[in-house]
């Protein structure tokens, strides 16, 4: 049984800047395969794309992922100059639920250990969003959870 759902004509995009934990990227690749979302990886990666942990987390869905790898963030921007980009950081002061997402938006997440570089956040300060966390003892959420939370909020918005 297939649920009634409106999928966007232009897919959303998840961008991982220098990801370092293979299972997170694998889980996100599976999310992308399930939703028709494009996955963009910005090097350097903290793993090889053929790594067993990465492949295991993504299961046998890798062939269904629209994957693009870029040598650096500047190359990514050159190849995707005019599309809307949202940067996710615990440093953001705007709740991600306040954003009005549209098909083909780019959701940009940083490395699991240090997040997005300060200079990148400074250059895109008007587009930084945060996922609220209630307890101060929790610094951040898992990267693959963040990607799923944001993507499904965007899909919910276009299904209103």
Automatic annotation (TrEMBL):
<feature type="domain" description="tRNA/rRNA methyltransferase SpoU type">
    <location>
        <begin position="12"/>
        <end position="152"/>
    </location>
</feature>
<keyword id="KW-0808">Transferase</keyword>
<dbReference type="GO" id="GO:0042802">
    <property type="term" value="F:identical protein binding"/>
</dbReference>
<dbReference type="GO" id="GO:0005737">
    <property type="term" value="C:cytoplasm"/>
</dbReference>
<dbReference type="InterPro" id="IPR029028">
    <property type="entry name" value="Alpha/beta_knot_MTases"/>
</dbReference>
<feature type="binding site">
    <location>
        <position position="110"/>
    </location>
    <ligand>
        <name>S-adenosyl-L-methionine</name>
    </ligand>
</feature>
<dbReference type="GO" id="GO:0002130">
    <property type="term" value="P:wobble position ribose methylation"/>
</dbReference>
<protein>
    <recommendedName>
        <fullName>Putative tRNA (cytidine(34)-2'-O)-methyltransferase</fullName>
        <ecNumber>2.1.1.207</ecNumber>
    </recommendedName>
</protein>
<dbReference type="GO" id="GO:0003723">
    <property type="term" value="F:RNA binding"/>
</dbReference>
<comment type="function">
    <text>Could methylate the ribose at the nucleotide 34 wobble position in tRNA.</text>
</comment>
<keyword id="KW-0819">tRNA processing</keyword>
<feature type="binding site">
    <location>
        <position position="131"/>
    </location>
    <ligand>
        <name>S-adenosyl-L-methionine</name>
    </ligand>
</feature>
<dbReference type="InterPro" id="IPR029026">
    <property type="entry name" value="tRNA_m1G_MTases_N"/>
</dbReference>
<keyword id="KW-0963">Cytoplasm</keyword>
<dbReference type="InterPro" id="IPR001537">
    <property type="entry name" value="SpoU_MeTrfase"/>
</dbReference>
<dbReference type="Pfam" id="PF00588">
    <property type="entry name" value="SpoU_methylase"/>
</dbReference>
<comment type="similarity">
    <text>Belongs to the class IV-like SAM-binding methyltransferase superfamily. RNA methyltransferase TrmH family. TrmL subfamily.</text>
</comment>
<dbReference type="GO" id="GO:0008175">
    <property type="term" value="F:tRNA methyltransferase activity"/>
</dbReference>
<keyword id="KW-0489">Methyltransferase</keyword>
<dbReference type="GO" id="GO:0008757">
    <property type="term" value="F:S-adenosylmethionine-dependent methyltransferase activity"/>
</dbReference>
<keyword id="KW-0949">S-adenosyl-L-methionine</keyword>
<feature type="binding site">
    <location>
        <position position="140"/>
    </location>
    <ligand>
        <name>S-adenosyl-L-methionine</name>
    </ligand>
</feature>
<dbReference type="InterPro" id="IPR016914">
    <property type="entry name" value="TrmL"/>
</dbReference>
